[in-house]
Structures are given as structure tokens and as C-alpha cells.
Amino acid sequence: MPESSRPLWPAALTFCCSILGAMGQAFFKTASEKVTLTDPLTWIGNVKLIVGLAFYGLATVLFVFALKHGNLSLLYPIIAMSYVWVMLISVFYFKEDVVALNWLGIGLIILGVALTQR
User: Fold this and answer.
1) HEC profile for 53-88?
2) Closest by Cα among 66, 85, 97 to 26
3) Which of these, 108, 112, 106, lies nearest to 74 by C-alpha position?
4) Per-residue pLDDT tens digits for 67-110
5) What are the structural domain ranges in the chain?
6) What is the reported pLDDT for 19?
7) What is the pLDDT of residues 80-91, one digit of tens each?
8) CA 12, CA 46: separation in Å to the nearest integer?
9) Strands (E), 1-118
10) Is the CB of residue 28 less than 8 Å from the CB of residue 52?
11) What distance in Å separates the CA atoms of residue 48 and residue 40, rounded to the nearest whole number?
């Protein structure tokens, strides 16, 4: 499909999928406080883990729909934006320390995604 006739909504939907995936990771992080490898019940009844899986599942279903109408080579790099969202969640919600080199990496991811969309 020529670039000029390519619909924008699959890219926008994929961008939303990157946010949903990052939210899933945040719920996995909070769920991890209650899970153990020795007690499977800590996994089964863990609401935060289930919510995280739901975010991941929704992101996957929507991404497959976006792929039906867009090019994998253009849409998949947008998923890398989930690294950006996870970093922001880590800093602002979990109060994790992030070094300057990590921020440089995030900047390069944003630049790379922008370049693949041109």
C-alpha cells in the first residue's frame, strides 16, 4: 500500500496498545508483591495479576486488529513505546530511580519510532 494512502488509525491503535501493555506491566509489578513460587494460590486469586493479564490481552487483540489493516514493519516499532510508558510509570508511580543513560535510551527509542513512521 502506498504511503500516501496508508490509513493512520492502525498506527494510533497500536500506540494505544503500547500504553495498555505498559499498564499491564505496572499491574504485574504490583501483583508481584503477593506472589510466591511455592504457593499457586497467590497467583490464582491475585486480582492485580488478573487485571495486568486483561490489559495485556486487550492490547494483543487490538494489535492483531491493527495488523489486519496496517503493515507489521511500520506498526511493530510503535510497540516499543511501551518502554517509554513503563519508564514514566516507574519514575512517577513506583518512585524508582532512573539514571541519565536510561533517559538517553528512552530518547533514542522515541527518535527511532518517529523515524520508522516517516
Assistant:
1) HHHHHHHHHHHHHHHHHCCHHHHHHHHCHHHHHHHH
2) 85
3) 112
4) 999 999 999 999 999 999 999 999 999 999 999 999 999 999 99
5) 7-116
6) 98
7) 999 999 999 999
8) 31
9) none
10) yes
11) 15
